[in-house]
Amino acid sequence: MTEKYTRKEIIDSQLLKAGWNVHDRTQVIEEFLISTSTEDLRIINEPIIKYRSEFSDYVLLGKDGKPLAVIEAKKSIVDAAIGREQAKQYCYNIQKQSGGELPFCFYTNGHEIYFWDLDNYPPKRVYGFPTRDDLERYAYLRRYRKNLSQEFINTKIAGREYQIRAIRSVMESLEKKRSKFLLVMATGTGKTRTVIALIDALMRGGWIEKALFLVDRIALQGQALDDFKEHLPNEPRWPQYQETTFAKDRRIYVSTYPTMLNVIRNENTKISPHFFDLIVVDESHRSIYNTYQEILQYFNTITLGLTATPTDVIDHNTFEIFDCEDGLPTFAYSYEEAVNHIPPYLCDFQVMKIKTKFQVEGINKRTISLEDQKKLILEGKEVAEINYEGTELEKRVINKGTNTLIVREFMEESIKDHNGVLPGKTIFFCISKAHARRIEEIFNSLYPEYTGELAKVIVSDDPRVYGKGGLLDQFKNKDLPRIAISVDMLDTGIDVREITNLVFAKPVYSYTKFWQMIGRGTRLLEPTKIKSWCTEKDSFLILDCWDNFEYFKLNPKGKNLNSQIPLPVRLFGLYVDKLAIGLALADAEILEPTLDKVKKAIADLPLQSIVIRDAITLVEQVKAVSFFKELTSDKLHFLREQIRPLFRTISGVDFKAMRFEKDIVEISIAHLQEDKKKFEALKNAIIEEISELPLSVNTVAKHKDLIQQAQTDYYWNTITEKKLSNLVEQLAPLMIYREGTMRMLLAKYNFVDVLLEKERVVFGPQQEAVSIERYKEMVEEKIKILLSNLPVLQKIKNNEPISEIEIEEVTWLLSHESPHITVDLLRKVYNNRNAALVQFIKHILGIEILEDFPTTITKAFDTFIANQSDLSVKQLDFLRLLQTFLIEKGSVERKDLISAPFTRIHPNGIRGVFDGKRMEEILQFINALAA
Fold this sequence. Notes:
Layout: H1 3-17, E1 28-33, H2 38-43, E2 55-61, E3 67-73, H3 84-98, E4 104-108, E5 113-116, E6 124-126, H4 132-144, H5 161-175, E7 180-185, H6 191-204, E8 211-215, H7 218-231, E9 237-238, E10 252-256, H8 257-265, E11 278-281, H9 293-298, E12 302-307, H10 316-321, E13 331-333, H11 335-340, E14 348-356, H12 357-361, H13 370-378, E15 397-399, H14 400-413, E16 425-429, H15 433-446, E17 455-457, H16 471-477, E18 483-486, E19 499-504, H17 511-518, E20 539-544, H18 548-554, H19 567-585, H20 588-603, H21 610-614, H22 616-623, H23 633-643, H24 655-672, H25 676-691, H26 698-701, H27 704-709, H28 713-717, H29 721-731, E21 747-749, E22 755-761, H30 769-787, H31 791-797, H32 804-815, H33 823-829, H34 837-844, H35 853-866, H36 873-889, H37 916-930
């Protein structure tokens, strides 16, 4: 295949897809003449190579007629990289010849395209040519982008010091030519706001024009759009309300992974790989390892990952995707740092652990009460036949009494609103949707006075959940419902600051998910957005009904879940295995229909997927008629090793039907191999699947005869390949109706359950937070009781002078009252090392606010840093170290700043981090604070 053929048959059509007409010389010039001399080559420090021609294969022109890009083409059977240096020399020579800007560099063999932004970034493989608008945008950004070290950060969007450090970390790395970043920030610390402030700065700095924010659920898309609307109201966003068609004239795009995958695969809506300048991947520990990683590969952009997963448990794949060497993210800010900050940025939490008798000891004759046993006998049931483990609750057996007990305990122990009657906003994490509905029924039964509005099931497949006025919107913005009962949907990402209770009514085995779920309650209230049903929030309560905290103490990283092979990959692999069996048996009745399935599966591979485009030569090889004419073991090996993995690109199909088809192919193989044990196990599973098809649905009822026959032993004892094919054809499309029917198979009881264990667990960064809070409450209650009896306290309240003798008397009295109130204890619980007893009393009585030294220092540093938005990451780190040093030591001398611990930042201490003027400014600032 010649270079000319490659250009005409492949590259010309690729350019046309990007909007370039190679026959229009106002857009594209082929065989662009370049004047090259030996002196030119020496100027650009390149080896002197005589090429066969002095013509560039393609030059793409801007609207002003000047060269925007050079494309060097090589024939498709050679490595595209052969044209790299030639393309580079052409770019420099064209710049010298035309006197304009340096053109962008492309080199390709038709199958692989490489883009080189000379003098800025190394070459990078791309999956299509840019449009003229893309290249004009690239040129504009290259021409006008500013130095980011001086770029202003809008602290009204993200003004906390760690947010500023995160933004500066990315900006400094961008200046160093990096293009992939990972921010690890605890849930509730404002990841989205940090990104919005970063996008704002990069747009103003001329580094980006179009940004894509990727999320994994529709609810999170709406939440992110609201955040962009609030903080960047003048930037046009996509999608607008009820907008479904992709628009190319916006600057901010917020999309789910499936939507964006459809956009880039759909020929009608397809967008250029160069359309975006920045992609932000929200919660990047999920969803991006199989099908959806294709989105990141497709676009030629700066890529920023966000995750709340603690650094020590982030999957290595995440670090690889974002080019983080040695497992170090671009920036990290932990939950502990946020809670320990003064004042705290996130809520600490208390945990109450409860266990019921049935959960611990199971449901059996020994644990069922005598009263319930009598009822069973009257109903003609055998008590001895009931025997379930506690772990089987809501899986094999349902006991209403256990769920009722959990609901009652929650209502008793939950943090209430200011009226002390109803629980604050709460999320119940349930095992299944059926479990969630049962919990909802119990709330309605126990508390009918709230007419079904107190607790609502909020799950992803309920259309009533979404949109303005939907269930999620009601939970966020209205007094009722107070309790959201959910399965998976509210586990991650949902931002409701007013949540004061979380109920773990299910076991959790993923450490990442566990902390995501806890993160639903960690946010503090915004003082300017206080809602009537939640006027204050210092901490939140977790009711753990399944020993999750104990599990993660014993298994800090949770279960090691094996990465699952995608269902389409498994199904294709089974068909290849069946082909091998047919080949070995030389049975045409097996070979021919299986071969048809394999061919159809290959034909259905999404050719627009970049994974398939990368492997197009392999796909074309198996699509050739000759490949299947004579099957050999080598060809079967090729199908397994080279073609089977490509099926991970399959999306948007009926996976329930595919799962049933996979089960049928498996039992077919077991039957052919005469594996009776496996055949029997698969048969029982398939019969169970078929039995769960609801005949009350008309579409299902049409196949009633086959459904009933397929549940008989005779049907399976006389099974044939034809019968199995018929099952797939007739019943696989009906599997969509199975959802929710499994609950009919569970044993249902309403036995009285009792609490076996109920304890408060002190947990979280503060360790003794609960006891300190309780001590504060006891002190405040005692002071208010004594106020009416002690004249000296009344004097303090009225701000009247008191003598030293009176102070000694009240000191002695309080130290001998319960709860043993002393100045030392008060200093400990109120975190103030210097205040006197009278100051504490005034604080308790609400006469004056007692601001401790750490709070004063922290506020001052926050203000100082917010007013210095051009600080580098190293300078910010130095100031935070200085803040910590000042809080611990109480003062700082000039000599301290050039010795440890400040020499950790720079060997010369402050002198190596700040210039003279800024250094004097800092010294004046800390002297004023310590004065």
